[in-house]
Amino acid sequence: MVQQQPDKSVSSNNSHKYQSIEDITEGVELKKQLKEQTETLEILVAERTKELADSQARFERLTDNLPGAIYQFKLAPDGILSFPYISSGCKELCELTPERVIAEPHLLLSMIHPEDVSHFEQVVAVSAKTLQPKHWEGRIITPSGKTKWVQTASKPEQQADGGIIWDGLMMDISVRKKAEQELRESQQLLQLVFDTLPQRVFWKDQNLRYLGCNKLFAQDAGYSFPEEIVGKSDFDLSWHKSAHLYQSDDQVILAGGSPKINYEESRTINDGSLIKLRTNKLALRDKNGIIGLFGSYEDISDLNQERQEAKTAKDFLEKAINSISNPIFVKDTNHQWVLVNDAYCQFIGSTKAEMLGKSEPDFFSLEEADLYWTKDELVMLTGKEEISEEPLTDADGNKKIVVTKKSCFKDLDGNIFLLGMIIDIRKL
Fold first, then answer.
1. Fold of domain 66-172
2. What is the CATH code of the structural domain delimited by 316-427?
3. What is the rounded average pLDDT of the residues 286-301?
4. Span 139-197, pLDDT tens digits
5. Count of C-beta atoms within a 10 Å radius of residue 228
């Protein structure tokens, strides 16, 4: 029997058939996977695009709500200046749209006040050379003619082409500058007032270092200008030998002690002579408490001398009128006795201590006191001398008729006084 052999061609065809089916199956699977990956990628791209759009929207809202404008400022290698980007805030600040600033950067640069252009160029040049942050304050003149103060702060970054881009913020600081100007003017006015005063004026911080003074104080301290005093202590000034005494006194005030008003102290000046001062010191306070000390003083050496001379003159005058046997008195415009001699005290029957600062109603009847008051007032108003007879009841109740001579005079300060002399006609 002959054995039948398998048909190899059939087997080969089946193998190709099976392989083709597998290839088709794999292709379908690859297409399916590719479709899924494409769909997934599209979803990711869409999500990322949405995230970018949301981020851009948030950025735009942020820049729109800023009190100024965010910008990129570029210095090209050829020296050309431009704004690759600027936020919408430039419209309110500079009265130009972002699109116009980007397209025509010279429009914004030309707004810089002529007096501030040089400083702006200098700041840009230094920042470009050192790659340090750029800070500039200056004025711009907007298209409508408004002058505004702006402040820019930006950080530079070197570009591959050699250019430089600054990322920065520009803000309107006109309100702040106006407040600063008003403060300066107020300080200048206050300094003018202090410099006009005849007294020396100063103020210190809690560490007893000088924050300021007027010109007279600076000159006393050995300096020409008040600003030279700032930051110094009493140990740095011409009276350094007595500084520990002054600072001990100041510490009491800063510790919450009572103000010291019109107290007298001595000081040795540069030529070694001793002067007399009348000083005032009080604590400077804000809502949180004591922040420093304010003081003033004046040289009263001449005043003390005048006081001594006046006292000497008064002593001499009192001795002179006490040597006169006729009663003599001096009254001020309030009709109060400011000076009486011994004879007048004996005539009235009271002591000087009882009479000085008093007037006739304290010693005479109402009728007589009104008469004296009226006649005295007439003399002080007219300035004319008057000699007249007047009734008078002495301390013993005896009624008299006296002759009174009255006249007015002024002292060196222009104060009016009435001088009177009484003559007892019974002794004539």
1. Beta-Lactamase (3.30.450)
2. 3.30.450.20
3. 89
4. 999 999 999 999 999 999 999 999 999 999 999 999 999 999 988 888 888 888 888 88
5. 14
Q: 51-109, pLDDT tens digit by residue?
A: 666 555 555 665 566 678 999 999 999 999 999 999 989 999 999 999 999 999 999 99
DSSP 144-169: TS-EEEEEEEEEEEE-TTS-EEEEEE
What whole-number distance in Å separates Cα of residue 176 and Cα of residue 151?
Answer: 11
Output DSSP code: residue 142. Answer: -
Q: What is the pTM of this model?
A: 0.48
Contacts of 306 (CB under 8 A, 6+ apart): none
**Structure-block tokens of residue 198:** 């005849």
Q: How confident is the model at residue 14 (pLDDT cuts 50, 70, 90)?
A: low
Is 179-299 in CATH node 2.30.110.10?
no
- Asked whether the beta carbons of 330 and 319 are under 8 A apart, the reply is no
Across 200-288, the runs of DSSP E, i.e. the strands, are 200-205, 210-213, 260-268, 274-286
The total of other beta-carbon atoms located within 10 Å of residue 260's CB is 16
User: CATH 3.30.450.20 residue ranges in the chain?
Assistant: 66-172, 179-299, 316-427
Strand partners, 292: 205, 284
